[in-house]
Amino acid sequence: MTTPKVYLTKRLVKLPSGKRVQYWTLKWYNRRGRARWKSVGRMGKVSRASAEAAKRQMIVALSNGKVRQDKPSRMTLSEFILFHEQTFGHGKKPTTLIEWRIAGNHAVKALGDKLLDEVVWSDAGEIRADLDREGRSQATIRKTLSMFRAMLGRAVKRGMLSENPLADEELGPPISRPKRIFSHAELDTMIEVGDVWWKAAITLAHTSGLRRGELLHLRWSDFDTRAGMVRVEEHHQGRYVAAGRDVPILAWQPKTKRSTRTVAIPPSTVAALLRLKMQADGSPYIFLSVKRLLAIDAKARAGKLHPCYELVNNFARQFDAIQNSAQAKLGVANWSHGCFHDLRKTFATRCAANGVPMHELQAHLGHSSITTTAEYYTEVERSAVDRLRAVFADVA
After folding, report:
1. Could you give phi then psi for residue 300, rounded to 5 degrees?
2. Backbone φ and ψ of 270, nearest 5°
């Protein structure tokens, strides 16, 4: 009998904290020619000699048939969801893992905990119908099917399925909510009715185009008062002494590689941030108080912190209340409520309408693809459309 070939390799893993570590990993090929891996342990904690010993033991175990070379394909959907997360979740953001879990749980609820290899193409319709009965939006239905299809695709690559039963499922283009572009009067009124915290948050959002997560994770050390700049970059887990109290520095990663950037802000925004700093309680964060940081830290120590926890409680509800107050003050009957992200869209649309080059706007917004930035050049404000029409107004 031929001795199985087992290779000792190093696998780079990015931890949720952002730290990169390497693991000793055994690699071999099953009878179908598909690669299989087994982690031996983290380099530094497991020596090379121990890893080599584990390699020799694996060769013996494979030769004696004590280790199955093929992953079992007949597992239930709930077992597969757990297996999928454990196998493919290394280095993924907590939000991604939560989305995988939600999509899998939707599938189990709609189809029952059936065997993985009994999933058929018509099950997509069952999932659609079940989510529709729950009153889920079309965007949620599409996202659930898209993620479940991707999970089944990974099962095919692992040899657990012969083919993806949802491979031909037509999902259609991504569904996005309509853009809400705030006018100058609406923005000025929202800033006027908000307290100092909201005045600074709304002003910074609509003059910089920062995402909500980027804005809330800003620290005072990221703010250059003299240059009028804020720096968006990765934060590693740490501690900070604020007003005699030990508070956490939260681990955080920007959305994309291009999201790490320095953003220029106007003098009016600098002034709004400085007014907020006068009322600050010593927190290292611009928009997170010491009290909130201590609450997050207490939940984390007790193991009760949800992976997708809110940095600020009732954020969307408070922004809605500000819009209600602004609507009443302006006396507008048909105010269309928007979300906080619409402030970023308002900034991008205004920049596009006023001739900011597309590549400069892409760098400023931190978009990975310039096609995302290009959307704002095809949906400019009415004033820009009118200016274009005026160019040929006298042409017969």
Report:
1. -65, -40
2. -60, -45
Is 83 inside a domain boundary?
yes
Biggest CA-to-CA distance, the chain: 89
Give the contacts of 285 (CB within 8 A, at least 6 positions apart): 216, 217, 218, 219, 220, 293
* 363 and 318, same domain (yes or no): yes
Residue 381 has pLDDT above 60, yes or no: no
Examine the domain organization and report whether 337 and 200 are in the same domain: yes
**In terms of domains, do 191 and 287 share one?**
yes
Name the amino acid, one letter, at 357: P
| Angle between helices 138-157 and 77-88 in degrees, nearest 10 | 80
- SS3 of 392, please? coil
The total number of structural domains in the chain stands at 3
Backbone angles phi, psi at 376, to 5 degrees: -75, -15
Which two tokens mark 347?
């900034």
Q: How many residues does the chain have?
A: 396
Mind listing the pLDDT tens digit for each residue in 215-232? 999 999 999 999 999 999
Residue type, 187: L
- The reply to whether the predicted model has a pTM over 0.90 is no
> Do 375 and 232 lie in a common domain?
yes
- Cα→Cα distances 95→98, 253, 306, Å: 5, 12, 10
Q: Which residues of 235-269 are buried (b: 16+ CB within 10 A; e: fewer)?
A: beeeebebeeeebbbbbbbbeeeebebebebeeeb
Q: Which residues pair with 241 in a beta bridge?
A: 246
